Amino acid sequence: MFTATTIAEVREGLEPVRRADRCIGFVPTMGALHEGHVSLIRAARRDCAHVVVSIFVNPTQFGPGEDLAKYPRPLEEDLRACREAGTDLVFAPTASEMYRSNAVTTVRVGKLSEPLCGAFRPGHFEGVATVVAKLFNIVMPGRAYFGEKDYQQLVVIRQMVRDLDLPIGIVGCPTVRETGGLAMSSRNRYLSVEQRHQALSLNQALTEARQAVTAGTRDVSMLCDMIRRRILAAGEARMDYVSIVDAASLEALQTVDRPARMCVAVRIGDCRLIDNMPVDVPGAHG
Question: What is the DSSP letter of 252?
């Protein structure tokens, strides 16, 4: 495995791969890798001849007061995880390598960036789309792998790739969960033992709401109330949102009558957790 810290090193290292017409699979990360990230690397390894992972804590997707300074950066552990999962090249740049001091260009993916997390983290998805577009131009992969845990991010990236005619297949991979159902996240390490137990309520609430849809409940306000009550019954929490949206457009729904996603963002202590779950009605078409 080769570790690159500059854009020039990545391009030079991947040139023979491109000349041989070998498919490059790419997994962009912010490091602090867990089994969810590793599952993406393994998926890329199964599909592609050459696997690239980026490790970069992107400052432009953090807002004022967010956890940029304390975001975990265990680089040596991350490199070991990449090596064990079969990565060929790791790109671990500095912020100054990724962003020139006089850079003014950004990428904004319109309406898809505005609801859900976009309403609570202004500029977040502009930072995400910009850095991912830059990474795509540096690595030039055939396929790129993203987890469904960050569902809005996945939808935004897919739209960006379509709109900019980038020749990249975007592969969404299922959320990997801890025992008990908590969605794996680098931020889970901020939770105390008690808070981690409380956080299990997110997956439990979504699961119960999906079961209610299966049993015939279609009213979104009823379902969202059910999710809120279940989460608050587990302990004190602040909710950014509980929403059920069209799976493709992220438009808020009033009735579950098409493929949809139930999405939540909840703050337990100082930790902001997000989760989501697909929900569908047999015979309905979006």
Answer: B
Q: Is 230 exposed, middle or buried (0-12, 13-18, 19+ CB in 10 A)?
A: middle
8-state DSSP, 231: H
End-to-end CA distance of the chain: 43
For each of the domains in the chain, give its residue range(s) and CATH number, in order of start. 2-173 (3.40.50.620), 186-277 (3.30.1300.10)
What is the distance between the alpha carbons of residues 184 and 20, in angstroms, rounded to a whole number? 36
Please count the other Cβ atoms lying within 10 Å of the Cβ belonging to residue 21.
8
Considering the entire predicted model, what is its pTM? 0.96
Q: 37, 124, 197, 285: which is the annotated catalytic residue?
A: 37
- For CA atoms 149, 150, 152, 155, the dihedral sign is negative
Yes or no: say if 276 and 244 are a contact pair by the CB < 8 Å rule.
no
For this structure, is 37 an active site residue? yes
- Taking only Cα atoms into account, the Rg of the chain, rounded to an integer number of angstroms, comes to 19
Per-residue tokens: 44: 């890329």
- Residue for token digits 């019954």? 233
Q: How far is CA 87 from CA 75, 83, 142, 285, in A?
A: 15, 5, 16, 39
Report whether 246 contacts 258 (CB < 8 A): yes
Note down pLDDT in tens along the chain; length 286 residues: 999 999 999 999 999 999 999 999 999 999 999 999 999 999 999 999 999 999 999 999 999 989 899 899 999 999 999 999 999 999 999 999 999 999 999 999 999 999 999 999 999 999 999 999 999 999 999 999 999 999 999 999 999 999 999 999 999 999 999 999 999 999 999 999 999 999 999 999 999 999 999 999 999 999 999 999 999 999 999 999 999 999 999 999 999 999 999 999 999 999 999 999 999 887 665 5
